[in-house]
Amino acid sequence: MLSKLSTVSFKGVETQEVFVEVQISSGLPVFTIVGLPDKAVAESKERIRASFFHLGLSLPQRRIIVNLAPTDVLKEGAHYDLPIALGIMAALEIFDKEQLREYVILGGLSLDALIAPVIGVLPAAISAYASKRSLICPAQNLNEAIWAGQSLEILAAPDLISLINHFKGEQTLGTPELPTFSPDEFTSQNYGDMSDIKGQYTLKRVMEIAAIGRHNVLMVGPPGAGKSMISQRLMSILPKLEPQEAIEVTMIYSMAGMLPEKGLMIDRPFRAPHHSASLVSIVGGGVRAKPGEISLAHNGVLFLDELPEFSRATLEALRQPLETDNITITRANQHVTYPAKIQLIAAMNPCRCGYYGSTQRECPRAPKCAVDYQSKISGPLLDRFDLIVYVPQLPIDDLILPNNKQQETSEVVRHRVCNATEFGRNNEKSKKMIKIENLDEKSQIFLRNVAEKKQLSARGCCKIVRVSRTIADLANSPKITQDHLYEAVNYRYSLDGRIH
After folding, report:
1. Residue-level pLDDT at 430
2. Cβ–Cβ contacts within 10 Å for residue 235, how many?
């Protein structure tokens, strides 16, 4: 007796088809799983045995061989439980094995035959949709699977007996319709409002520019100046995720087992790991090569507070994904790549005590305190920040005394951000102006003088032009002018207190 059905293995957010072949033949009673199973897959035979017992079934006292092909790919995770169990039932002719040919199957099993939720259902559903097949998954993963496509047939079963009855024609597991939710139903975190921040008008302007162009920002200033506060409020002015972006983020969170109840990520992620976080937790990895904080911040913001306090290896690991928009995790037997299109927002004090260059309090060990502290940030990493701004200490009078100038709300700022983003997207001239050689003669001379005086790298010059293009979009200008360049240059603060 032989049966064959399909499931998937995961390599990052990509899937690879795995065939589950079950053969039941005469011989000494044995239940063997071959094909490079990991510990979780090897233990599935005990969960299957217990589930069958709970249903009043028993495994035949014969030779049961389960082969997971291709055999040279490591099989990891508990989602092989369900396809192996169904493969055994098909081989025993409990139902017609041909019914399972058109399904991609994944799901875990508990000892009482309930189908347990697993990670990676959305990537598996997208793979099934692309290959024009159907999906069998746990009922608890339904909210995730339905976003793969409206026409995808999904059998989301709560337990093993429901699937048996469905294929025997005694029960019907219908395919649900794609639900509709308002954006407010998805929003679970309150990041505050820009109007909460008093003063710091330059910093607010920088964050608005960063929100439009998705620029990386480094804020340098004494403690208590508002760096962390405004970093969170940046989320309140960013545009909502586009549908394709939302699917990409959802796939990553599915692989990490961190999806919300609605099954779809519609808010841009905001990740703020502590500076004591390990290299693996930031980059990703571990036994199953799970995504790290860099990938979890895909299409969102990665906020690193107290930047120099992170380990040197962690900081240098940021350099590659900031350029390529992905991160590759290398293991002994495979290479796993996750998307990592992040907006890096970082904050740091100018020195260890935090008061180097402050007009209100003196650093007792200047300048050595600042030199030692700032040396933890390498030049190549520093060069990858588009905007480097000094955040001064806010005078106490600005906090206590009433301010007649009304603070703009996040809604007002977000409206400008969305308009500028749309202007830059639709204006073909603005896209062409991103190259340095397309600047007018006066702007080229100005940029050349700045580059020579401040010893800017080629990357630094390009970043100034990119920021200038964003400022031009904010002003609804089809061309970059010298004023735009001048403002962009003034946002290249160097750690020693001079314009970079």
Report:
1. 55
2. 21
348 close to 231: Cβ distance less than 8 angstroms: no
167, 201, 223: which is the final residue of a domain? 167
CA 278, CA 283: separation in Å to the nearest integer? 9
pTM of the model: 0.89
Predicted pLDDT of residue 338: 94
Q: Cα–chain-centroid distance for residue 369? A: 36
Q: Quick one: pLDDT band at residue 261, thresholds 50, 70, 90?
A: confident
Structure tokens at 320: 């590659």
Q: Is the pLDDT assigned to residue 312 strictly greater than 90?
A: yes
103, 5 contact by CB (below 8 A) = yes
The domain that holds 159 is classified in CATH as: 3.30.230.10
Q: In this structure, are residues 304 and 270 in contact, taking their beta carbons and an 8 Å threshold?
A: no
Contact 157, 126 (CB under 8 A): no
Residue 17 clears pLDDT 90, i.e. is over it:
yes
Q: Which domain covers residue 162, as residue numbers?
A: 2-167
Q: How many CB atoms lie within 10 A of CB 61?
A: 10
pLDDT digits (tens, 9 = 90+) for 164-178: 998 888 777 766 665
Dist. CA 379–CA 382, nearest whole Å:
5
182 part of a folded domain: no
Identity of the residue numbered 366: A
Give 207 or 174, the one with higher predicted confidence: 207
Domain co-membership, 384 together with 440: no
Phi and psi angles of residue 167, each rounded to the nearest 5 degrees, phi first: -75, -20
Q: Are strands 63-69 and 270-271 parallel, antiparallel or unpaired?
A: unpaired
CA angle 349, 350, 353 (to 5 degrees): 70
Residues 6 or more apart whose CB falls under 8 angstroms from that of 59 comprise: 31, 48, 49, 52, 88
pLDDT over threshold 70, residue 183:
no
Same domain, 332 and 292: yes
Structure tokens at 105: 């199957």
Mean pLDDT in residue range 355-359:
75
